[in-house]
Amino acid sequence: MSEAPFVAETQFHVRYAETDAMGIVHHAAYIVYFEEGRSHYMRQRGTSYADFERSGYFMAVTAVNARYLKAARYDQKLKLRCWVDQVRSRSLTFQYEIRDNVSDELLVAGTTQHICLNRDGHVVRIPAEWMQWVKD
Hints:
Blueprint: E1 8-13, H1 29-44, H2 49-54, E2 57-68, E3 77-87, E4 91-100, E5 106-118, H3 128-135
Antiparallel strand pairs: 1-3, 2-5, 3-4, 4-5
């Protein structure tokens, strides 16, 4: 990987369905936000997770970590940043920041770890053509 990783950034408003009775984003919604961050990252790199699956591979989540620093609320505009933090022959670790879009205050920081599987569910090396978007 290069010294400064590629960072994909997207923005969105918190939807009502993602909040609890107090209008605060439910903790589980952030995991869905992380997934959107990964998908957006791959699209920004010129591919998609759907293309990855069509090529016969899957990236199974093996660990999720989220540090909740401040609550997000209904209709708040958020900025999600995602980048690849660590690359190994069979695994990737993504890192995330979710910030308030106006103040840039950090609300949630997290990571997800993924292992590469083939169609039979066996752990395999990430194919070279897919490693390229990580290393460029």
